[in-house]
Amino acid sequence: MASLLLLLLSFLLGVADVHGENFRICAFNLHNFGNSKANKEAVMTILAKIISRCDVCLLQEVRDSKGTALPKLLQAIKRFDTKNQYTLLASERLGRSESYQEQYVFIYRSNTATVRDQYQYPDDLPGDEDAFSREPFVVRFRAPKTYIKEFALIPQHTTPSNATKELDALYDVLQKVRKIWKIENVMLLGDFNADCDYLPKKNRKHVRLLTDSSLHWLIADHSDTTVRLSTSCSYDRIVVHGETFNKAVVPSSAKPFNFQQEYSLTEEQALDVSDHYPVEVLLKVTGPSAFNGIVSFTSYCTVFHIFSFLIFHVLL
């Protein structure tokens, strides 16, 4: 009986692996991440759990001026998930003021994705110089198991008071990236502040990122990406360029990840981690899980029949 149950357990674990094969891209505003948070064990544990769910995770609002908080975060992730290899790629410190600067940071699984190129947008477009407070740090990834194989990620954390202008200027960044890398599979993601008072409905017609039909906004306007119960805004977004990229997305997979609910945290505990929920999307991969869950469903049915068979014969 023990050997039969072990066989069943092995099969169940195999099914779980199949179900989790899709490639996950995330964007997470860490809300003033630096040494203070890095020295809180409970916060770092939750961050490790959240980030290790992702094949590629963009972090924003990283304010690690001493350069010690990010290494601690990476080590916490590596300790939590020993099955994957994680690498960190960070931009320079960005901001108009010396007293307030942030970095864009990508933490990714080097066993599922590799960096092909990187590009710090110079923000020198004639007639619109210095459009961004924190100009995008663009990274081109290769992910062999995904359908599209390669894609570029354009991150942005907009300034709330200037969100409309910066979102529109992201369109120029997109065109520049498409031209220099000759690539069409481009995703724009991050804390866009693209909702509520920061992006009034009357301003949307002035944002080319919204009016160009080749761009697909994957996080719905009604999604709440904020932790505080007193707010309900879809600030954090994921946008993909082109039909090829859009078709490579697992349908209905783009959403905020409510880590407060997932890890049974109080609002206060969740706010210690961040005042934003991460947003995420799954890319289809080649292999069994590419069939949009059909294989997983079939596998679970098979497990049910095998389990029934085993129980029947054990009882006999």
Write out key terms for the chains shown.
seven-stranded mixed sheet; glycoprotein; membrane; single chain; 316 residues; alpha+beta; 13 strands; 2 domains; transmembrane
Describe what this molecule looks like in 3D.
The protein is α+β, with helices and mostly antiparallel strands and 316 residues long. The protein has 2 domains: 1-21 and 293-316; 22-286, Endonuclease/exonuclease/phosphatase (Deoxyribonuclease I, Chain A, 4-Layer Sandwich). It has 10 helices and 13 strands. The protein has helices at 2-19, 35-38, 41-51, 69-80, 163-181, 208-211, 243-247, 259-262, 267-273, 294-315, and strands at residues 23-33, 56-62, 86-90, 94-97, 100-109, 114-120, 137-142, 150-155, 186-191, 215-217, 236-241, 255-256, 279-283. Strands 1, 2, 3, 4, 5, 12 and 13 form a 7-stranded mixed sheet that branches. The chain is globular and about 45 Å long. It starts with a helix and ends with a helix. Residues 1-19 and 289-316 have low confidence and may be disordered. One of its GO terms (cellular component) is nucleus. It holds the Pfam family Exo_endo_phos. One of its GO terms (molecular function) is DNA binding. Residues 27-276 form the Endonuclease/exonuclease/phosphatase domain. Keywords: Disulfide bond, Endonuclease, Endoplasmic reticulum, Glycoprotein, Hydrolase, Membrane, Nuclease, Signal, Transmembrane, Transmembrane helix.
